[in-house]
Amino acid sequence: MTQVRSSLGLRAVRLFEGLAPSRLEALAQACRWRSLPAGRMLVQRAEHERDVHFVIDGQLRVTIFALNGRQLTFREVEAGGHFGELAAIDGQPRSADVLTLRPSVVASLGADDFRQVLDEERVVADRVMRGLCSLVREVSERVIDLSTLGVQNRVHAELLRLAREAGCAGNRATLDPAPTHSEMASRISTNREQVTRELNALAQRGLLAKAGKALVLCDVAQLERMVAEVRGAA
Predict the structure, then answer these.
(1) pTM score, two decimals?
(2) Which tens digit of pLDDT belongs to each residue from 192-214?
(3) Is it true that the peptide bond before 177 is cis, omega within 30 degrees of 0?
(4) Which of 50, 122, 206, 211 has the greatest number of C-beta atoms within 10 Å?
């Protein structure tokens, strides 16, 4: 469904913070706006589509579906985030699939228009470079984890990542809503049963607790020590 163009929506996009209203209005008019239902595939791996997509509302998942049906999830993109800049910059096919997790509003900007913004708005170019550096570091860490850690340790590392993302209060962190076991399995390349087994083991040790639909990490410091030890960083 086509969405009405509005610079108000782009004001919440972190990449564009601080841009002049006239620039935001021009970008809003240049974008293609869509309102998408949950479960809709927006980008498919290996396709030659070069738009940069800005999430105005909703949530999308960046993932890969293997030929055997297995799914490996990289990240979720919330309102205010963006994705797709790699293809816009290097002109290569898409490296992952992206689908909506909830009903979402997405504004999509063509590659040429995006590159023009990078040329003319230094602050945007700097944010893109920093974002790509962060992405490389995150992917490198995940490759190391998948290559060297057992399933048990990968569950611990993923919980720690989610805790840092959610924010810690003292020595505790609350994941609300809690990720499903299937979602966690897709992030660390394992199956739901193994995730369930390890989460139950952590709960028995008093490191995890349920609170309604939330999952509470009761001892983040201990989790950090466990992850550091197996990564050789203790």
Answers:
(1) 0.78
(2) 999 999 999 999 999 999 999 99
(3) yes
(4) 50
Kind and range of the H or E run holding 98? strand 97-100
Task: Name the more confident of 143 and 209.
Answer: 209
Q: Where are the alpha helices (DSSP H) in the chain?
A: 7-10, 21-30, 85-90, 111-120, 122-148, 151-166, 181-188, 192-204, 220-231
d(CA 228, CA 234): 5
2 has pLDDT over 60: no
| Residue 62 · residue 88 · CB < 8 Å | no
Find where tokens 């945007």 sit.
124
Sign of the C-alpha dihedral computed for residues 119, 123, 124 and 125 taken in this order: positive
Task: Look at the chain and count its residues.
Answer: 234
* Structural element, H or E, at residue 216: strand 214-217
Q: Which whole-number Å values give the CA distances from 179 to 99, 185, 232, in the listed order? A: 17, 10, 27
